[in-house]
Amino acid sequence: MKNKYLPRKLFRYFWDVNPKKMDCQKYDIYIITRLIEHGDDFAIGWMFRNYRLSLIKEVLMKYRVAPKRTMETWAEVLKLDKCRMKGLQWKIMYPPFWEPSGKYRNQYRRAITESVKKWGIG
Questions:
Q1: Residue 23 dihedral angles phi and psi, to the nearest 5°
Q2: Chain mean position to CA 68
Q3: How many CB atoms neighbour CB 29 within 10 A?
Q4: Using CB atoms within 10 A as the burial measure, which of 2, 26, 29, 83 is most buried?
Q5: pLDDT in tens, 11-48
Q6: At what angle do helices 68-78 and 103-118 cross, to 10 degrees?
Q7: Of 30-39, 68-77, 113-122, which one has max mean pLDDT?
Q8: Whole-angstrom Cα distance, residue 29 to residue 60?
Q9: Which residues pair with residue 23 across a beta bridge?
Q10: Which residue, among 26, 77, 72, 86, has the nearest Cα to 48 in the 3D structure?
């Protein structure tokens, strides 16, 4: 962990708490889940620079941190076993209104894959 507190650019993802007082070590799982679900390129890059890859993978394996398709994309990018991911074992999944489908799904996957390659983790 390099930074003890969140950078100002990430405050918008933490609307339900006071991000100025959030300790990045103490609330690591909360921060990772929020950035995986809502983060942009900068947020994902910051997450990978500040947290161990093993911790990020552990969060993806143990928690349902994002919609099903997003979880599947992260599983493919980070080469995780989809059968063991808790977020993909739910019997009923309600996709949110913004979740990409059809031709946009491939663009979405490409964007995540490019971000991961850009930050040197894929």
A1: -85, 120
A2: 12
A3: 15
A4: 29
A5: 999 999 999 988 999 999 999 999 998 999 999 999 99
A6: 40
A7: 30-39
A8: 10
A9: 5
A10: 77
Single-letter code of the amino acid located at 35: L
Helix (H), strand (E), coil (C) string for the chain: CCCCECCHHHHHHCCCCCHHHCECCCCHHHHHHHHHHHCCHHHHHHHHHHCCHHHHHHHHHHCCCCCHHHHHHHHHHHCCCHHHCHHHCCCCCCCCCCCCCCHHHHHHHHHHHHHHHHCCCC
Tokens of 27: 């609330």
Contact (Cβ atoms closer than 8 angstroms) between residue 95 and residue 69: yes
Count Cβ neighbours within 10 Å for each residue of 52-91 and write b for 16 or more, e otherwise: eeeebbebbbebbbbbbbbbbbbbebeebeeeebebbeee
Contact 119, 49 (CB under 8 A): yes
User: Side chain identity at 22, as an amino acid letter?
Assistant: M
Q: Under 8 Å CB-to-CB from 49, ≥6 apart: which residues?
A: 2, 119
